[in-house]
Amino acid sequence: MAYITLNRKSLAINYSYLQQLFKKNGIEWAPVLKMLCGNKTYLEYVLSLGDEQVCDARLSNLKKIKSINPKKETVYIKPPAKRSIAKVVKYADVSFNTEYTTIKWLSEEAVKQEKIHRIIIMIELGDLREGILGEHLMAFYKKVFELPNIKVSGIGANLNCLSGVMPSKDKLIQLSLYEQLIEAKFGKKIDYVSGGSSVMIPLLLKKQIPKGVNHFRIGETLFFGVDLFSNKTVPKMKDDVFLLFAEIIEITEKSIVPYGNLEENPSGETIDINQEDYGRNHSRGILDIGLLDISKTEFIIPVDKNISFIGASSDMLVVDLSKTKKKYKVGDLVSFKMKYMGALRIMNSEYIEKKLV
């Protein structure tokens, strides 16, 4: 059975690195834990690493976090759906919002639950996912400010989440100016200017974050140690927090070229034949994991760099073992590092065992 491991030591190193980085720059941060897909063992460990508030995009995960540590401050990082309003107020101390109607529902529910629900107003900076247009912010804030049991704790933005628009110092200056306009017009303090996600880390390392931006939500760099500008590992961080292990269930010398009439496979792919491969064989290994678990082979990277992918079906992954120096046999494990979306898909699979090592 395939399984995934979370390495406690590597994650602790990454967490500590980010704690020190943000503290040095006078910025607060919140780990984004949706990667863990509500796994209780993993959540308990991450929650033990620090006192920071935590973020998630699934209410079931926030509920589990509150069951582990009722005092942990939680942030729901997407605009709430109407049917989820009661749970948002119950399990999230803060939520991201862009629609007045939704905030009005949150206000009504917060009154029922006798709570003050805090919100962060998300502003559009060009990536064209969630966010109100900047020219509407003053009127929007005025209406929201008048709602009972709602406190605007901050403004925020997301970049590089949908359209691939990268952050820049200019965009962050624009975000911090909105905060200054609100404070000047309404005389109300905005606690957080939440600049974005892991994609902001390279700007922070280059001292390109404007002074007014004082909050970040970090997931991918925490769990993968990656610089999302260069796609390389940040110095002093670890890229092996997660490892995937799949068992070899067959090894056979087979033809490189399939034989028979070729049509599209179940994934809609048609195999291209290299004429030079006719008559040649190679060592093909089959692993006990498939597209149902990993979505795409591009999302996982063999630790043994001499292993390459041949193809995948829903439940099996076929690899080329011809160039590796290791003498693999049936029953051996092949290990993989993962990209963010690959690990997210695997963590969400009920068929992959999760281990803490």
Automatic annotation (TrEMBL):
Residues 7-224 form the Alanine racemase N-terminal domain. CDD domains: PLPDE_III_AR_like_1 (cd06815). Its cofactor is pyridoxal 5'-phosphate. GO terms for cellular component: cytosol. Pfam families: Ala_racemase_N (PF01168). It comes from the Bacteria. SUPFAM superfamilies: PLP-binding barrel. This is Putative amino acid racemase. It comes from Lutibacter oceani.
